[in-house]
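Provenance

Sequences were taken from public entries as deposited. Structures were produced by running a predictor on each sequence independently, with no templates supplied. The record for Ribosome assembly factor mrt4 from Arcella intermedia is shown for reference.
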Amino acid sequence: MPKSKRAKVVHLTKTDKKGTPAKEALQANVKEALKQYLYIYIFRPQNMRNQTIQGIRTKLKPTSKIFMGKLKVMQVALGKHEEQPLFPSLDQIITRLVGDVGLLFTNEKPEVIQKFFEEYHQFNYPKAGFVATKDMIIPEGPLPDIPPAMEPHIRALGMPTILQKGVINLQGTYKICKQGDVLTPEQAKLVKVFGEKMERSGAVLLCKWHDGVFEEFVKTKTDAMETAQ
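Predicted structure for Ribosome assembly factor mrt4:
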């Protein structure tokens, strides 16, 4: 007798939870960092891109370790569900590990870390939704720095251009944006065409933990902290 082709019922209790090995590995890494490093910081990215966080990792790698994402998993690794804190005041870090933040473990001196975060930044091309930090006005006339092949592209983005003798010419002064504008996708693309990296990215330190002593640099919203508890 042929086997039935009807779909078999699979009980969810018997399926493997996706991501469990990754979560366990993250917990193990955070617990190991807790033993290995003297200082813990929480930082908040500002307009941060992947290359920015990678730059921070590279600069601090010899003395530090950074964790991003899966904050609830990191909270558990730091002892969220333990009856007593693993270390005095460590619960202050756990309750503030919410929102768009990262966790930094380091053996570097506090003054070095604070100076690094104050000074480290990168400039990137802005994306749609970014608030312009300056006026961008392109005067009428030839645009010799823009490749001729780009003419159809920038014309499609709204600029009144024409190709003459292999050179793009702007037919009339054109304002791409003014300071304070929320950039549209078209404006953001034009800003990039003209090479203006106006988006500043970096990170701000929110708090620090060391040897049972907690110090807060930037006040964390109460409602966010209550969600983490």
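Confidence is low (pLDDT under 50) at residues 10-16.
The chain has eight helices and eleven strands.
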